[in-house]
Amino acid sequence: MAWGELFGLLAMLAALFGMSAVLTRRAGLNSAAAPLAALALTELVLLAAGLLGVLRPAGLALAALGLLGGVAEAVLAKKKGEPCPLAAALANPAAKLFWAVAVALAVGLFVLRPEFLNFDEYSFWGTAAKLTCETGALYTVCETGLPWQMTELAALPLASFFFQMFGPFAPWRAIFAADLLMLAAVAAAAGCAKKARLACPLFLAGLAVPTLVTVAGHTALLNTAWLEFLGDLPAGMLFGGAVAFWLAAKDEGTAARWLTLPVLLLAANVKSNTFVLGLAAAGLVALDAVLFAPAETRGAKRFAARLGFGAACLAAPAAQYLLWNNYIAGLVRRNAAAGGMGDTASASLPAVVVNGLKLLLGLPAESYFEARSDLFWQYGSAMTDAFFHRNVSVFGTGAAVVALTLAVFLAAVLLAPDKGARLRAALFAVGSSVCFAGYWLMLWLSYAFLLKDSTPESLASYPRYFASFYTGWLLLALAVLGVSCAAAKRPVFGRAAALAAGAVFAAALALGTEPQFTLLGVSGGEYASVRREVAVAKAAKETIQPGQKVFLIRQGDEGFSWFLFNQQLCPALVYGAGGATYGEPVLVEGMAYGAPYTAEKFAALLEKEQVDVLLVSGVDDIFEASYASLFADGLAAAKEGPTLYEQGEAGWTPAVSLAGEVTG
Hints:
Keywords: Membrane, Transmembrane, Transmembrane helix. The chain crosses the membrane at residues 6-24, 36-54, 60-77, 89-112, 170-190, 202-223, 229-248, 276-295, 307-324, 392-416, 423-445, 465-485, 492-511. By secondary structure, this protein is mostly helical. The protein has two domains: 3-517, no CATH class; 527-663. It contains 28 helices and eight strands. It has a four-stranded mixed beta sheet. A two-stranded antiparallel ribbon has the order 1-2. Helix 24 (585-588) links the parallel strand 4 and strand 5. Helix 2 (34-52) packs across helix 8 (171-190). The longest helix has 38 residues, at 300-337.
């Protein structure tokens, strides 16, 4: 085992603990919320450093500051006879649970060593993280081998970069980084209740949320909620976690409150189509800050300051998003000027929103949108039907998840100790419900006007898109419940409510899932096929010379394998058809991923792309019947296993056999 990977990650985890200790002592922050603040500040610094081209030095500086800062705080506190800040960083029971689970998760993932399994982990998320780690630069400026610009937001690749500072890139460390963001959000929510009898069951409930919302009843398929490197669930959990952070920090002083801004920036910087969740979190925080002031900020003279804080909460994520879009637009223009691919969007997001609302209100819209108006209403009907009839979670349909969330809010309202607290809990319930309506509308517009691979009958990725909101909404409800439980007039009722929440979520996890197909019991066998392909790709990379262009042939591929190989080989891999079954037109006719080329046209394609090496990973009868004449050995070597071919006088000639990588 590569023990250096684990020790390198634990060193960065120790640096994060040092940062949390500093924030707890210097900003007076709730220790359960400190890890989320530390992660948010880290991401903000790394983003700025990446844009300035000094990403790796910034990462090393953060590691040093975290490790030395924690030690320095401990030394200073000892000299002054003050309590140890390292112990203070564990004061809240939720903080203890966070750090214990974080270490256990690191060790568990190191032993399991999960690989990326999802298409999007290879087409963007994992590849962006790998490029950033290996080059020490933002993935946006790296050579990717793709015919388009990588434009997705940067929080997850940068979080992965932080935990991969020491040692080579490893997918399991990227997965750990995404998990830690969600775990920090859970800690902030549970930390709203500072007593162990409240915080512990709420932490358990929050920990179960990602799995519960992504499993639709018992299933024999692997649930990857805690085993994936995708933006959907972290974006949702950070939506709820950002508001929970505010609830945990609101009464801890001015410095702690202002740390909400970087957390909101983090929540808004995970994924483009979940940016609205960051804005929703900012809006809820702003409303609460203005309408329900902390004790030391009440009074007419302080009202303007509260308004300013609320405006800053809304402005910060919006400004970050606009700056990133301007940065990407500059890269796209530069890429287009250099002969690459520029902007290919069929409609801009503002145009979609404006014209979609016009259709909703029965007003005339632009011709493109009028032409799709029937489709717009079909999607609306399909989404409504799916909300009430399509299972998306252990709890059942989307309607069931909403009912559960509102029930948690209702419990928070009933437990609140006075009228003001009840109004505050109700504000979060009503405000977040309005946010849900807005998110629903955004997805409706996206399905009708932006998403190309969906139909009203299929609603592509429907559970995944809504899981982002459902996870965050449930976590937010648990945080509000935690506040009410802690302040309940009769503590026994608060303890009972927290215990009930933990019991319900734990029971749902136990009864509604198959533990062996979750993080609790998954085995390495789940990754066997992917590991074989990764081994072939890595072996090919060791053989291929710098500057050589490689063309992948893997019959039966629907794009997944091409992106997997590209993650290891980019930018050497030629795009070609981006993963397909190549063959004579008559042999691949009707195939969804067929690439029809006669032998002459296939040879011309390879010549046009200036291919130096053919990586033949998998052939079939179609490929043999179509192109065997182009190969000096008639594909004999390729039929034995993956093979690298180079151009020779008699055609493509076997150069290196990679068959041993498949058999181990």
